[in-house]
Write a structure and sequence with these properties.
Layout: E1 15-22, E2 33-42, E3 45-53, H1 62-68, H2 81-92, E4 96-99, H3 102-115, E5 125-127, H4 128-135, H5 144-150, H6 161-178, H7 186-192, H8 202-210, E6 214-219, E7 225-235, E8 241-246, E9 251-256, E10 260-265, H9 266-270
Parallel strand pairs: 1-4, 4-5
Antiparallel strand pairs: 1-2, 2-3, 6-7, 6-10, 7-8, 8-9
Length: about 270
């Protein structure tokens, strides 16, 4: 990973805050990058930015167009992928990356490198999604707009690369300021970026295996705690919530793990 010192304070690291717009969700299936943007953070201040549309090889799918509004006419004079990637590599050389949902964007970037026969990118990658999950555990969700609203940041036009990169940069800097994280090192932020592991909850695991019900005490978004009889089915992909059939609501629901105050077997309730 180059000459990075992972013991540097985060303010001493030059960070490239990256966002992409794409034609779909899966680069392995042929989906492409159609816009790239970078906001540079130096000394914990947004300092400079770059963006480029990227020419694609086939018409823009309607589903993608509905999200970001980038149509075929806008890409007619855009540079090809190789030219955009070349600029990107030069501009971000020596930077750590900060990305909202880093695995998604990095999959597209590494696929681009492979298709262009370029070396893989080796910068340290900070995943702002996981950082926010760990530092703001009580949010309803971790969409960029939700994080920005929580931090009282003005909202821009989401789903364009440059505006999303700007918002990610501002949210990251605001989080550092609000929580006084200036003395944390690059290594500590990389630790915060790790995927959240599946929780170790033997009672829940047993209930999933046996298809049995358990009793939970759950705090809702208003702070009210209710007892719920549920049948656990599994966990959400981010391992932050329990998926279960709720007897109270008579439907499948998700329960944020940090709002579940207690677990007990249904039999214990009847004793």
């Amino acid at each position: 990973m180059g000459d990075f010192s992972f013991k540097q304070h985060i303010g001493d690291v030059t960070i490239a805050v990256i966002d992409l717009e794409t034609t779909g969700l899966d680069p392995a299936a042929g989906d492409e990058i159609c816009e790239m943007a970078v906001v540079f953070v130096r000394n914990l201040t947004a300092s400079g930015e770059w963006s480029s549309l990227v020419r694609i090889s086939s018409p823009m799918p309607a589903e993608a167009l509905a999200i970001h509004g980038i149509d075929d006419a806008m890409l007619t004079d855009a540079p090809p992928l190789g030219e955009a990637i070349s600029q990107f590599r030069v501009l971000t050389d020596g930077c750590a990356y900060l990305i909202q949902n880093a695995p998604f964007d990095m999959a597209f970037l590494q696929m681009a490198m492979s298709s262009l026969r370029e070396p893989e990118l080796e910068a340290p990658v900070l995943d702002f999604l996981n950082i926010a999950r760990r530092l703001l555990p009580h949010l309803e969700n971790y969409k960029l707009a939700t994080i920005c609203e929580h931090l009282n940041l003005p909202l821009e036009n989401f789903h364009r690369a440059l505006s999303d990169a700007r918002q990610t940069a501002q949210a990251f800097l605001s989080l550092i300021d609000v929580l006084n994280l200036q003395d944390k090192t690059l290594a500590e932020f990389l630790e915060l970026s790790r995927p959240i592991e599946k929780p170790q909850l033997p009672l829940v695991e047993e209930a999933i295996r046996r298809k049995e019900r358990i009793l939970i005490e759950y705090e809702d978004g208003k702070g009210e705690v209710t007892r719920r009889l549920v049948r656990p089915l599994g966990y959400t992909r981010d391992n932050l919530s329990l998926i279960a059939y709720c007897e109270l609501r008579e439907q499948k629901r998700t329960f944020k793990l940090n709002r579940i105050k207690s677990y007990s077997t249904h039999e214990e309730e009847g004793e």
